[in-house]
Write a structure and sequence with these properties.
This protein has about 250 residues and is α+β, with helices and mostly antiparallel strands. It contains seven helices and twelve strands. The strands form two sheets. Strands 2-1-12-11-8-9 form a six-stranded antiparallel beta sheet, with no helix packed on it. Strands 4-5-3-6-7-10 form a six-stranded mixed beta sheet, with no helix packed on it. A hairpin with a 2-residue loop joins strand 11 and strand 12. Helix 5 crosses helix 7. The two termini are about 40 Å apart.
Length: about 250
């Protein structure tokens, strides 16, 4: 009996030798009593190899002759291989998440809100996709402030503002509330909750000015109260003498 690792090794070996994997032949080796788990794993791995190989060879608009799958496939193209498993919500989610991850790294960096519509009945699935980006391409915030600069990882959603009376001196990261403090409590040109950040693509963040009356100067202009804007990373925000940069951790991109 073939295990999942055995079949994944066979798939990897075929791709590493420079030829596409024979997906149909591999799936025929899957034991009937493990079909649900193994078929999805193998299809997800094949999807990843196709996007990686396409990016490496710059064959973005070509297909392998005689195949039903493109070089940059979507999950839906694997219906012919998955059959009824595609109708299983968990199986469909797993291969969609594989597509999301590989496209975010080697592909066209899809938008989280658009991609999430593919599972409309899964509540807060867009939050799960955002969290996946935290592992794929972690964000780093750098607060250039004398005498205490700060550099740390940040999650897909957080808020930036000034200090509350019971909070540490800025700059400081408050993990319990996903909140970054960049100015002291007496600094009135910044609200306690000034900007809400949300990850929307691997290299894009949505900024929402949630302050009632304070604008914020960005490198590309001023974000007024109530305004929302999506910007590519790295992002630079200037607040008084404090400069804040948000970027993807360098070893990941």
């Amino acid at each position: 009996m073939h295990s999942t690792l055995d079949l994944l090794d066979k798939l990897d070996s075929q791709w590493q030798l420079g030829s596409r994997a024979d997906l149909s032949a591999l799936l025929e080796m899957v034991p009937t009593d493990h079909r649900r788990e193994m078929c999805v794993e193998i299809c997800a791995a094949d999807l990843e190899w196709r996007w990686r190989t396409s990016a490496a060879r710059h064959q973005l608009n070509q297909t392998f002759e005689g195949e039903h799958l493109s070089n940059r496939p979507r999950s839906v193209e694997y219906i012919r291989y998955l059959g009824g498993l595609w109708d299983d919500p968990d199986c469909r989610r797993r291969i969609l998440e594989a597509e999301w991850s590989v496209r975010s790294v080697w592909g066209d960096s899809p938008d989280v809100d658009s991609f999430a519509t593919q599972l409309p009945d899964r509540v807060d699935w867009h939050l799960e996709l955002e969290h996946l980006l935290d592992g794929i391409a972690p964000l780093i915030i750098s607060v250039d402030r004398n005498p205490e600069p700060l550099v740390c990882r940040i999650p897909s959603r957080f808020v930036l503002g000034r200090q509350n009376s019971d909070e540490p001196s800025p700059p400081a990261w408050i993990a319990s509330s996903n909140r970054m403090i960049v100015k002291e409590i007496e600094y009135r040109n910044l609200s306690r909750e000034q900007i809400r950040f949300r990850r929307t693509r691997a290299q894009e963040i949505e900024l929402s000015n949630i302050s009632a009356n304070v604008g914020v100067l960005l490198h590309c202009g001023t974000l007024l109260p109530g305004q929302r804007e999506r910007v590519a990373t790295p992002i630079t925000i200037a607040i008084d003498q404090c400069e804040i940069e948000i970027a993807i951790e360098s070893k990941y991109y």
